[in-house]
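Re: weekly structure request thread

Next one in the queue (110 aa):
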Amino acid sequence: MRKEFLNDFEELILTMVAALRENAYGAAITIELEQWLNRKVTLSAVHVILYRLEDKGYIKSIVGGATNERGGRRKRIYSITNAGLSVLSAMKETRTEIWKLVPQLKMSYS
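Done, posted below.
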């Protein structure tokens, strides 16, 4: 059986969906990633990955109710599926095993 892997941005977004739980929607994910990564993340790029992850079966979404703070617009809320948890877990395990191959590095100061 072929192992499924995600690219870095897919993995970050999938992890953020898992972390944000019921607050996992496009704008919230974008804001959190910008804060954690300390770089600009566009909402459209996040949406593209969310749609891709949903097509792969790693997340699912529901449309929430309209809110006054959003001008009556509804937001799509994402949640991670068992398949998504499985791929994240496998990727974390693989990364951990690879990091074990790296010898202890000591910082040298000039």
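The chain has a mean pLDDT of 90. The CA atoms of residues 51 and 58 lie 10 Å apart.
Next request, please.
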